[in-house]
Amino acid sequence: METSTTRPGLSLTDVPTSSRLLSLDAFRGLTVAAMILVNNPGDWGHLYAPLEHAHWNGWTPTDLIFPFFLFIVGVSITFALGRQTGEQKALVGKIIRRSATLFLLGLFLNFFPKFNLLTVRIPGVLQRIALVYLICSLLFLNTTPRQQLYLLLAVLAGYWLLMTQVPVPGVGYANLEPETNLAAWLDRTVLTPAHVYKPAKVWDPEGILSTLPAVGTGLLGMLTGYWLRRTDVSAAERVAWLFVVGCLTTLAGLCWDGFFPINKALWTSSFVLLAGGLAMLGLALFYWLVDVKQYRRGVLPLVAFGVNAITVFFLSGLIPRILGMIKVAGADGSEVSVQSYLYRQCIAPPFSDPRNASLAGALTFVLIWFVVLWWLYRKNVIIKV
């Protein structure tokens, strides 16, 4: 990681949109804050339904958070690499180094605290971000937007055919069931059950084959980034068309659901379109309010999360594990973790509904991180990965 600073006293209105899209930082900040919220409830046994993933087919607001982030990765690529100068070989080296860093950070989270090579989960959220960033960045450097659009269509159609038409070895027919679909077979064949997501046991929600359509989510973001960087059309026209395309893409995903069910765990093609379309609508709204209409009220907290998104995601996954390792005596004399003790003694008591207590625990965690990130933001510190 590298730490960089911007010039002291930098305000939102000082940053040109050609250099850093403020609406994108704010949208990224909202997304990563939502990630922290759903990943850190006070009590995993008591959650409101919208804060849980869909059991299998279908979707909840929580299912949209990760694809929103990958969509934002795609948009960011067009702005970051679009203004880079120098030899392509040097750019490729930077892309590979950053991708490797992200992948290793994710692997470290999976290793910690046991560091057991025999059972460590290999895929993960940061690992998928690393792969999507790597592939999409290389495509940005070597293909045109038109070629990227064709590639996106090929990925969506190809994944649909693979999952619905190719017989699964050992099963004998194509299917979309949790443990017998083609993606699950590939995960347990290549990764083996020892190295996949433990609750799923024999497949991984960030597995090998489903990374292909996840790249499609990144490509949707890249195409959106190209559109937002257009200088030959007005800002109002850019927003209007982004709303239109976002609505059509969302509708296409909902229609495809009848043939290829919306499923976050499989990252189905219909899910790519649904989440991508909704992400377009969200970004269009942020772009119109923040960059076009110059609306600043309430944006700074989101920007504070957005400029250090990977850092806060990594640390918000690491610190609860550390707190879970430290044991203290509970109210009944039993040994409990510091994390559990703080929740039971400081947060849960005022609430009669355990779901409200669990939500309060998650919100408290987000608030604590906001204080940290706000301090970094006021000091103009951005930790680059």
TrEMBL record:
GO MF assignments: acyltransferase activity
Name the UniProt record assigns to this protein: Putative acyltransferase
Pfam family name, one: HGSNAT_cat
The entry's keywords: Acyltransferase, Membrane, Transferase, Transmembrane, Transmembrane helix
Organism placement in taxonomy: Bacteria, Pseudomonadati, Bacteroidota, Cytophagia, Cytophagales
Residue stretches making up the Heparan-alpha-glucosaminide N-acetyltransferase catalytic domain: 20-233
Transmembrane segments: 64-83, 95-113, 125-142, 149-168, 207-228, 240-259, 265-290, 302-323, 359-377
